[in-house]
Design brief:
single chain; about 300 residues; alpha+beta; Trefoil (Acidic Fibroblast Growth Factor, subunit A); 12-stranded antiparallel β-sheet; two-stranded antiparallel ribbon; 20 strands; globular; cilium; cell projection
């Protein structure tokens, strides 16, 4: 039985049937080829692919909800660097706003595949809601069970699929060299790789250097400032905010792995990160967007105002 095929114009072609000196199925192939060439010349193929790419990388993700207030292996979280105070003369050279860690994929590899390809760059974006680009999963590297709390000084990994379904890449770093360094700052680079090794191991340390010994081995509270350190090089994950890059998605900050110390030998705000979890009262938001509970003074004022209104 002959199965006819329909072209884009709606005309039905039957294989094995002559149309002049040509078979109809050959005419269908030629018409499909002309349609492809026309779309390529007019950029329609690139537009369709870029829309699909944006829909995937900016697809909304669901963050994990912490019931006990700690970070656990297997949690899906955001890593946010809070806004910094800038002097008027610094606004032109220092990027402001809250920034989140995100993948910055090579569009050349994305146009030829349906997942992230290694190596993949990273950047800091002005987007603190969970999407495919900035949602990371905390992974176990030493056999810890999923759901077990992550502790200060304990190795863990970070992985993401960038909103795609199959392939996951892992956050990694290595000593800088002439061939391997951050493009703008020329410091130790940070990148995503498809192989788990000792270069993918990270640790979280307490923010105050004077209390780190006391907090060693304790569970890490969620939604608080911490320092993320690369286990192999002992350098901290950082957002310099003075080095930005032009990407397909706009102007974004460079990410590197370097410990910035102040005069008191403590890490600067460039190395401060908040591990953000989901909001249990609203699945579409995060704990970062959750309003703070009112203080006791505010509660008294509200109570007095309510009593006056009721009179």
């Amino acid at each position: 039985m002959i199965n006819p095929r329909t072209s884009k114009s709606g005309r039905i072609y039957s294989p094995g049937v002559l149309l002049g000196n040509w078979f109809e199925d050959v005419c269908l192939e030629e018409e499909s080829l002309k349609d492809f060439l026309y779309k390529r010349e007019n950029g329609e193929l690139l537009i369709q692919k870029s829309r699909k790419l944006k829909d995937t990388l900016y697809k909304k993700e669901q963050l994990s909800i912490s019931k006990d207030g700690y970070i656990h292996f297997g949690d899906t979280v955001l890593f946010v660097n809070l806004d910094v105070v800038r002097l008027p003369e610094e606004k032109a050279i220092i990027m402001g706003g809250n920034l989140s860690l995100a993948v910055n994929p090579d569009l050349g590899t994305l146009y030829t595949g349906d997942n992230l390809s290694a190596p993949c760059d990273l950047s800091a974006i002005e987007h603190v809601n969970p999407i495919g680009r900035n949602a990371f999963r905390i992974l176990s590297l030493e056999g810890e069970a999923m759901g077990e709390p992550v502790r200060f000084g304990q190795n863990f990994g970070l992985g993401t699929a960038g909103g795609f379904q199959d392939k996951m890449l892992f956050l990694s770093s290595d000593h800088k060299s002439f061939q391997n360094m951050a493009k703008k700052s020329s410091l130790q680079p940070v990148f995503m790789t498809d192989e788990i090794s000792y270069l993918c191991a990270w640790q979280i340390t307490f923010l105050d250097p004077q209390l780190r010994m006391e907090y060693e081995g304790l569970p890490i509270p969620a939604n608080t400032k911490v320092v993320i350190v690369h286990s192999h090089t002992n350098q901290a994950l950082a957002v310099p905010r003075t080095f930005w890059i032009r990407t397909y998605f706009g102007k974004e900050c460079e990410i590197n792995c370097h410990t910035y110390l102040d005069s008191h030998k403590a890490e600067e705000s460039k190395n401060h990160w908040i591990i953000v979890t989901g909001n249990p009262s609203d699945e579409s938001t995060t704990m970062f967007n959750r309003p703070k509970p009112p203080s006791e003074e505010t509660r008294v004022q509200n109570r007095e105002l309510h009593e006056k209104c009721s009179e």
